[in-house]
Amino acid sequence: MNIRLFKPSLTELELSNVKDAFDRSWIGLGPKVNEFEQKWAEWVGAEIAIGLNSATAALHLALRVFGFQKGKKVLVPSMTFSATASAVLYNDLIPVFVDSDFETLGMSLEDLDRKYDKDCVAVIPVHYCGHPVAMEKLVPWARERNLKIIEDCAHTTGSNYKVKNLGTWGDIGCFSFEEKKCLTTGDGGMMVTNDPELFKDVKAMRWVGIDKDNWKTAQAYTEVNKDAYHWFYELNVLGWKYNMNDLAASIGLAQLERLPQMNKRRSEIINKYMEGIRDLKTISPLLPYEPDKYVYQMFGIRAEKKEDLIIYLKSKGIATGCHYTPLTFQPLFKPYASPCPVAEKEYYKMITLPLHVDLTNFEVDYILENLEKFENE
Ligand SMILES: Cc1ncc(COP(=O)(O)O)c(C=O)c1O
């Protein structure tokens, strides 16, 4: 047995879309990015979506559009991937680390309130593993304090939560299409909003400051445009090289077609895991998973003997992970660390188990059998 922790699910559909891009011989920023953006906006229920090369880029630009004064503070969870907090540093802002809720391991709203001060300008809730942060409470709390809200949706694909889809509760939602995520383009990301004014410069910011459509310019060489200035562009804002390209978008469009089926399979696997570990004494689910309601990118457990179990599963050919080492433990973020006791304690129990669309029932049963054997040894 050799069971991978994560694995992208790729089929002939993705391959044939990539082949079409090859046949058109347009693989940079182009019409497929536009098409994917429109379909993603529709899927998420947002007015605008902009395609990028990663969620890291999305988080960077999401903070950047507000033009916050250098040195202001942004509230981020400690239990997240580095990108959530690195984006704060990219913008010359200060991350304020918020502890996790014990049950969901998402941002604790009590600790959020404790850590807030007048220098805070924004909050970045992360829907950890795909489990929704209580946005119906966080949003009014943040609005009262005039904070901007950027949702880090790297672990979900736009689940419906109460009255809205995740990614549309705050000002901006950021999604990841990196290879381990619910939908992948190899590397990629999308930022979405329902406030077009906020995104007026984002197309230029993601493509070296140019806000023209390159592929339309190429068409205009020979088509309607009769003047000599098809090549002209003006730089008005500082831009990065953060754009999605047509190869990635071609894969993304195929993945989006398959997404409802892929999400269904993820939910089936989580239901099977939950059923299988229900009676174990030393192992429990990481979160109060609700796989019939929400889309989860990761499945994890809390185990009393974390390290022994990881080694045991390794010996059985089962890959595991740990998401995440609290950022307050990371040397890079130590200078900004503040107490996050729940995240820092639960970290010593957390194990991520394999979850991907092509994982078979036979493999899940094998993992469950081994969890049981370990507990009984
Ligand atoms: C919570 C979270 N935010 C942001 C990112 C960054 O995503 P990307 O790899 O697309 O830049 C990740 C990636 O794993 C993540 O888990």
CATH class of the largest domain: Alpha Beta
- Please summarize the sheet with the most strands: 7 strands, mixed
Strand order of the largest sheet: 1-9-8-5-4-2-3
Low-pLDDT residue intervals, each spanning 5 or more residues: none
CATH topology of the largest domain: Aspartate Aminotransferase, domain 2
The N- to C-terminal Cα distance equals 21 Å
Short description:
This protein has two domains: 12-257, 3-Layer(aba) Sandwich (Aspartate Aminotransferase, domain 2); 259-376, Aspartate Aminotransferase, domain 1.
Characterise the protein shown here.
The chain has 377 residues and is an alpha/beta fold. It folds into 2 domains: 12-257, Aspartate Aminotransferase, domain 2 (3-Layer(aba) Sandwich), CATH 3.40.640.10; 259-376, Aspartate Aminotransferase, domain 1 (Alpha-Beta Complex), CATH 3.90.1150. The chain contains 12 helices and 12 strands. Strands 1-9-8-5-4-2-3 form a 7-stranded mixed β-sheet, sandwiched between helices. A 3-stranded antiparallel β-sheet has the order 10-11-12, with helices on one face. It has a two-stranded antiparallel sheet with strand order 6-7. Strand 6 (160-161) and strand 7 form a beta hairpin. The model has no long low-confidence stretch (mean pLDDT 96). The structure holds pyridoxal-5'-phosphate.
Indicate the topology.
Blueprint: H1 12-24, H2 31-44, E1 48-52, H3 55-64, E2 73-77, H4 82-90, E3 94-98, H5 109-115, E4 120-123, H6 135-144, E5 148-152, E6 160-161, E7 164-165, E8 172-176, E9 189-193, H7 202-206, H8 214-220, H9 246-277, E10 283-285, E11 299-303, H10 306-315, H11 341-346, E12 350-353, H12 361-376
Parallel strand pairs: 2-3, 2-4, 4-5, 5-8
Antiparallel strand pairs: 1-9, 6-7, 8-9, 10-11, 11-12
Helix pairs in contact: 1-9, 2-9, 3-4, 9-12
